[in-house]
Amino acid sequence: MSRIGKKPILVPATCKVAVNAATREVAITGPKGETLKVIHRPEVSVAWNEADRMIVCTTDMTRLDQGNRKAFWGTTRANIANMVKGVTDGYTEKLEIVGVGYSAKMVGTRLDLKLGYANIISLAIPTGVKLVIATENGIFLTITGADRQRVGEFASAIRSKRKPEPYNGKGVKYVGEVIIRKQGKASGG
Question: How many angstroms separate the CA atoms of 172 and 93, rounded?
């Protein structure tokens, strides 16, 4: 039995839930004004209890050990719980750019990065994702949005353009990420 899948998802009163059993689509609208949708696996059934304001994910217990049914059950429940949290509170990722001459600039719906390469790296900002650039004590990027996957993928795409290196610590890193530093070469003298 899936420990995650069997837990009910409590939905706040500010959210609207629509479950369509025929198309296996779950849509959640929250106070942030965003509607998130997911189509779940056929092995899992999702039920919306309006009176108790909870979503319950279930599966056929007689066939629980067949294939990846247990994993699909837990993943479906986790995805729907992430949607509920996203439309009520939202998700945030913070990145820090460290390096001499490194910069970040928003141009319309693009993010232009100068990360020590000859060319400027240009990334399209996904829909539903907001980006704020702060340059007080260094360069900090704050990525916010309701969809956890989009926020995480965009932050990962930015970080992958120049991962932090262990000698000087230059690159793009998550705020709070610990980079294990190496000593480097000692001068022979």
Answer: 13
| Structure-token match 């999702």, residue found | 46
Three-class secondary structure of residue 81 per DSSP: helix
Question: Residue 65 pLDDT more than 80?
Answer: no
151 CB-contact burial (10 Å; exposed 0-12 / middle 13-18 / buried 19+): buried
Residue type for 22, please?
A
DSSP 120-173: -EEEEPPTTEEEEEE-SSSEEEEEEES-HHHHHHHHHHHHHTSPPPTTT--EEE
Amino acid letter for position 181: R
Per CATH, the number for 9-88 is 3.90.930.12
Phi, psi of 158 (to 5 degrees): -65, -45
Q: Where in the chain is the domain with CATH 3.90.930.12?
A: 9-88, 91-174
Q: What is the pTM of this model?
A: 0.88
Q: What is the pLDDT of residues 38-53, one digit of tens each?
A: 999 888 999 999 999 9
Quickly tell me which residue has 């793009």 as its tokens. Answer: 172
- CB neighbourhood size of 181 (10 A): 12
113 within 8 A of 40, measured Cβ to Cβ: no
The CATH code of the domain at 91-174 is 3.90.930.12
